# Entry
Amino acid sequence: MSAVLHAAPENARQADPADPRHRTRCAECGVPFAPAPGQAAQLFCSTPHRIAFHNRMAKRGKAYLPVAMAARITRDGFRRDKATGARARLECQRMIQNWIEEDRAANRMAPDAYMAFCYRHGLRER
Ligand SMILES: [Zn+2]
# Structure
């Protein structure tokens, strides 16, 4: 079921398992694909998967940011409004754990692997 839901779309470049250049796995679906020529930093097998990944990250960021900031400014409930800070800390942990489990179930790239890829390819520098 999951494999069908997350299978690469029809327009995804097909990978040749014998070709070492085709070992890139899509960050969204986990399916190996061949990056476009000259695109070593390509993370997604297709445009729909790139859009789905970034839309989900934006949605998660919007939910997470105010809670994480409340946790941080209260030092996880040790300063200022302690009850709110403690609650925010727990909510942050719960959100992250739920998203990790959701991503594992969907065969998405793990967050540490995603960040390693971004750092390796200079995608976090502004
Ligand atoms: Zn994909």
User: Anything to note?
Assistant: Residues 8, 26, 28-29, 31, 44-46, 49 surround zinc ion (CB under 6 Å). The two ends are 40 Å apart (CA to CA). The helical segments are 2-5, 47-73, 82-105, 111-120.
